[in-house]
Write the structure tokens for this entry.
Amino acid sequence: MCGIIGYIGKKEALPILIKGLRRLEYRGYDSAGVAIIEDSNIKRIRSVGRIDNLADKIKNEKFTGHVGIAHTRWATHGGVTEENAHPHFGCDEKLVIVHNGIIENYREIKEMLGNKHTFKTETDTEILAHLIENNYTGDLRLAVEKSLTMVRGTYALVAMHSDHPDTIVAARLGSPLVVGVNTDNGHDEYFIASDASPILSYTKKVIFLDDNEVLEISGGKMNTFNIKDEIVQKNIEEIEWDEAEAQKQGFPHFMLKEIFDQPRVFVDAIRGRYDLKNGISFLGGINMTEEEMHSVNKIILIACGTASYAGMVGKYAFERLAGIPTTVEVSSEFRYSDPIVDDKTLVFVLSQSGETADTLAALREAKRKGAFVRGVVNVVGSTIARETDGGTYIHAGPELAVASTKAYTNTVAVLLLYALQFGRLKRTSLATGERILKALLEIPEKMTKILEQSDKIKVIAEKYKNTKNMMFIGRGVNYPVALEGALKLKEISYVHADAFPGGELKHGHIALLSTDFPIFAIMTKNQLYDKMRSNVEEIKARKAPVILIATEGDVGTKDLSEDIIYVPETMELLEPLLNSVALQLFAYHTAVTLGRDVDRPRNLAKSVTVE
Ligand code: AGP
């Protein structure tokens, strides 16, 4: 949560910081602020609400400084007020910091600092600013390092001090920080940000700070230190994403653009990872010997939210193709359970952002218990990607809308490839392997056919726009699709939605049905088709409106509903890759019709980096 951007160079810092905040706004958007060193003083402006409010407030101010930091907040400690917005000062307003994360022992530190300091906010960050101020004896980096030995919690931190107008110090533990390095062709500038998106228009060369590292950029030189204050050599890496990829490209919302990205990025997820002739997939990231792969007798997929629903699809694939017992665990539960994990357990942690705090904690727990732990992650260089002993990038490209769409389908794609890889080692035949791969190759074209129905889905969404509650049902591999459809709808349209396996209806939920309680049923042609059809007939008998996802050419559905979205036929295991696209569009159009803030729904943030 929260977005940080810092700049030090020869240009005016303010426009760079404001532009950077706009790129990072998806990380949190309840308040924002900026601080710039101006003639050896620090000038700070903050505002409640979106970056536009801050930009408005700043427009008549004069800022000419070349060093600054800025922050967009998602509140954890203290309400959404201007006072609580970052950056935060120490007492004498010479030291200023922005921070992402949580300082768990902030009360103890406050007590320790005692009456010597006056606190103006309710935030843990302000306490950290005062602690650094307290430890400052003329060297900002040393003050930061000393202070960090005294805190418990997580942080991405960037600090400035007016005594050192050409210095920025940053540190990380548990929250990401990327440093853009633009020192070619006479440029002499550095950017520090929560992710690469605000940096890409200036440079693609970056370093990723690791936990317990402190970065100092001073007098045009950059150095990284470990907690013992020893210099650490960091590699400069090149980011592949370009800036255009991070833009809306003519779509009204990032979410719609990302839904429409799916046929293209799906190809990126599978490219070069299979051999059709031999019906096999090979993801080098598994990083296990054949013997180790054979020894796996249990798979656990760990994730939150949408990623966990992708995991549920993966469970069907691992069990069906490889015959390995597989469970899906929600990260926040896994970390506090007593998981039965050993050196024959393979754990996949699934995360678009690669920064989800609960998933990261679960990863560490699984590693501690001796499992093979692999990541399935979108954001390159993210913490989860770096802390796992292998794994695979899903190559969905930047996903900026809070609601996850293309990361879901690409995660499912990668899990299917992993399941096939294990399956071909164990019990899946060449013919089945070949059939799955052929079906996977047809998915982009079939997704496009669903996207072409966007306007038709919009009409259905508009018809049901006044609905207060909706139930999604599916069976087998389409049960997680129903869960994902309900999550998508509720998070962006605020319509209450739940999901159940079709067979569960009679065990209680059917009591809810009435003429104003629509049911969204996923009834594609697969081995459970007849069962699902009976469930839909039961609903019809209770006169509840039904919206259907059905297979193209299934004319027998017409008597069940007026509102049917037809999707192309595919293999059962692959159906979620298509059916979910239809549900994403339904949720999107419902939210737009209701005038919701589609890309930044209330109370949510893209990357949940706190527990
Ligand atoms: C998806 O639409 C959600 N906003 C949310 O459930 C998300 O999938 C979850 O927080 C996990 O995020 P991650 O994939 O970045 O770990």
User: Anything to note?
Assistant: The first helix runs from residue 13 to 24. The chain has a mean pLDDT of 93. The chain has three domains: 3-239, 248-448, 453-611.
